[in-house]
Amino acid sequence: MTQTLEPLVHLDRTPQERMDAWLREFESALAADDIARATNAFLTDSYWRDLTAFTWNIKTVEGHEQIADMLTARLADTRPSNFTTTEPATDDGDGVVSAFIAFETAVGRCEGHLRIRRDDAGTDGGGRDAGEDKAWTLLTTMQELKGHEESAGPNRPLGAVHGSDPDTRSWAEKKADEELSLGRSAQPYVLVIGGGQGGIALGARLRQLGVPSVVVDRHDRPGDQWRKRYKSLCLHDPVWYDHLPYLPFPDNWPVFAPKDKIGDWLEFYTKVMEVPYWSKTTCLSAEYDEAESRWTVEVDRDGERLTLHPTQLVLATGMSGKPAVPSVPGQDVFAGEQHHSSAHPGPDGYLGKKVVVIGSNNSAHDICKALVDNGVDATMVQRSSTHIVKSDSLRSIALGSLYSEEAVASGMTTKKADLTFASLPYRIMHQFQIPVYDQIRQQDKEFYERLEAAGFELDFGDDDSGLFMKYLRRGSGYYIDVGASELIADGTIKLVHGQLDHLTENSVVLADGTEIDADVVVYATGYGSMNGWAADLMGQEVADRVGKVWGLGSETTKDPGPWEGEQRNMWKPTQQPGLWFHGGNLHQSRHYSLYLALQLKARYEGIPTPVYGLADVHHLS
């Protein structure tokens, strides 16, 4: 029989007492399998974001109906218990109290974040009085599987052999034997295609979890994905946002690391974390065997053809797909050099030439700045408006409370920052971002006025929510300014507007007839969906079965609906069995690699993983 909760608010209760009371009642409802009672612990407009703990998925449920449906499907198997706060609850103002929480399920140990606030909507028909505390946002995340904990901390390996051991091989000999057998006498359970920061972070987690795996990449060395980009490239996100799992950057690491330094760190990290990594390896084809529930993957490893049979295949080729190069008349007659921004070598060799860069987002700005800094004539062709935010403003206003030296000094850890950031459901995240970018726009008013006076077309996103929402929705359309914007404002970087129409032997011609002399054309025109890589490797049928990768379904520019609630196909099961996508920036590679690794580990160990809310496919690319 459904019970009603006791009133959960007294005016003299502290934030901790309010949080403890809510957790106590919520756990009681769950233990009693009283889904109606547990659901009524949430506000009508509420959000429960689950990262693997309940749903074996990356899934957000919104409102009473969806929360009740998820609990109906998953409560009996999940068996959550022992809810508690991990540090004192805080008063966030406007009646909101928040806390980091911990709990257990039948198979895992979990952590999360909870915001409660008083319900001012009156009685709800179930006998609950107005003014009671109800959940507004709840984040639940799996952190480890019981009985399958990482070999870390108190579980770290001894290393030395104390006493007799029938296996007399040294650590180095064991490692060499493992490398020799991998892919031959021993098959990887997980094959990770792509050895940038995403593949390496996931490889490190799988290694610590004891999941047989290998990361493969076509480059000569780990980190070459960064080393081989244009020489001026630096990270635009600050160091506190960019740590990899297990090994944070040292305290003397630059705030914005140069690309070659990042490349060296990734190579060092791969070696120290003992990530099984095959360089100079190209995947030729992949086919899924429905009967055997495994893949057959043909690879070329530095000239040696090998056949692998992984059960799970992860495409960790970044958040972007294949370079998108527009096809326009005249490309075959243009006498100069043409290349996509991903293949741009840098400014060396272009002195005395006229370079036209098609596009106006991050890569276009970086390339133009490096060109003019080295005395090269550069023209940027802006085809549509671009969101610009100064790096310093992004650091201090948008990221400072979570990812900064000041945040670290105040007790903010990377883990707590990640949980806090993840605790904001995507449905309402823009509401938190709009005032941030309003503040930035006001602080940097003169900067934006100079840009607009130079003719640059600015935007702050369809709803003025700024950089992060543009990134999550479409992965493009912005530039984090590290100096190029001032060069546009003062005319050092030439700026023209329009759509590319055709090329002549020595010029770029826009749709309005504007003709720009050119010796070199750089297409800073973005990338396609990640499922383009799947089409190349597995065929169009598999790519279409998976559908578009990235985006939220926000019905904003380049992010068509319907609403998805989470990133399409990222870090979670897809409609193609055994196929996963992993990528994003360094922050996402660090944080979400945990949940992907735990999903893969559970399957490797034979732990049941019934997926709740497997996403439908609405768009093919």
Please give a handful of descriptors for the protein shown.
single chain, alpha/beta, 621 residues, 30% helix, globular, 22% strand, seven-stranded mixed beta sheet
Tell me about this structure.
The model is unreliable at 1-6 and 122-129 (pLDDT under 50). The strands form 6 sheets. Strands 1, 2, 3, 4, 5, 6 and 7 form a 7-stranded mixed beta sheet that branches. The protein has a 5-stranded parallel beta sheet with strand order 10-9-8-14-25, covered by helices on one side. It has 621 residues and is an alpha/beta fold. The protein has 18 helices and 25 strands. A hairpin with a 2-residue loop joins β4 (90-93) and β5.
Distance between the termini: 48 Å
Q: What percent of residues are in strands? A: 15-25%
Category from helices, strands and their pairing = alpha/beta
Residue runs with pLDDT of under 50 for 5 or more positions: 1-6, 122-129
Secondary structure: helix percent = 25-40%
Largest sheet: number of strands, sense, barrel closure: 7 strands, mixed
Radius of gyration: 26 Å
Mean pLDDT: 94
Question: Brief description of this entry?
Answer:
With 621 residues, the protein is an alpha/beta fold. The protein contains 18 helices and 25 strands. A hairpin with a 2-residue loop joins strand 12 and strand 13.
